[in-house]
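Supplementary Data S3. Sequence and structure tokens for construct A.
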Amino acid sequence: TLRLPFKMFSSHYKLGDPCPGHPYKGGTFHAYLPDNRNGQKTAVLLKKAFEQGLTFQIKSVDGEERVTWGHIPHKTSLDGGKARNGYPDAQYLHEVCTVL
């Protein structure tokens, strides 16, 4: 299994963002992929998406602005199936590559 760590630091909205100057809370996020050829290819695509700022979004949660996963699906658990963002999920690599 490949474990992809993503670190988003707390910061402030920048000029041009919805709430310039307001703070938001970051976090550490992990995603999992199978350690095989397709999983490794997908990891490269997910890294590019992260570098382009496409992986996360900022949402208001309980009155606090915080970083959350964006629209790209990620597996955040090794088990629990599709319903819990985990494995097994035979279609995941195809679905995430379609989005990417």
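Construct B, processed identically:
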Amino acid sequence: PALYFHSGEREEKCIIEDVPSDTLVIGNYKVQQWDIHQQDFLESAPGLGMFVTVTAPTDEVLLKKLYGPQATFSFTSYMSGEHIICLQSNSTRLMAFAGSKLRIHLDIRVGEHFLDEVVAQAKDKVNEVSVKLGHLLEQIHHISREQNYEREREENFRKTSEETNSNILWWAILQTLILISVGIWQIKSLKDFFIAKKLV
């Protein structure tokens, strides 16, 4: 998804991306710095670095690297689940930057694949078609993996729902039995009371 968010100096901002296994994820970002004189965000933030950290669902760090104010990063998931992508500015050597605001534009593409630029730019039409076909096949495999992942999630949700419904049913039966037992006990107690008082 393409989005932007604001951040302060050295402030870490994270997003969660649900990714199927064995999937390439490509992220593009651009940082704009607030200019107090123009009262607007500048188109570029020269000299500013951004730490990019990607964490797998098992808390394993897949990527931790310092980039510039505008960059592309990528990683491949080895398991399905929620991956955490964090960005943090590196502004220790920019004393004038202290307390400034940043606007970070971020675009995450899941299942994209890099095309070999040399082959993609080849004049031979057969090679070009072959590369495009390979790219389409990769996209098909990605869609298939994503469908399998969604199917697994749906199955887990269905199992959880069935277990919950079963528990609710047994709880309702138990409540009914308790109410019937209490009712019978109250009737018997009242009957014994009336007999004892010789009202019946």
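Confidence is low (pLDDT under 50) at residues 93-98, 114-120. DSSP finds two helices and nine strands in the chain.
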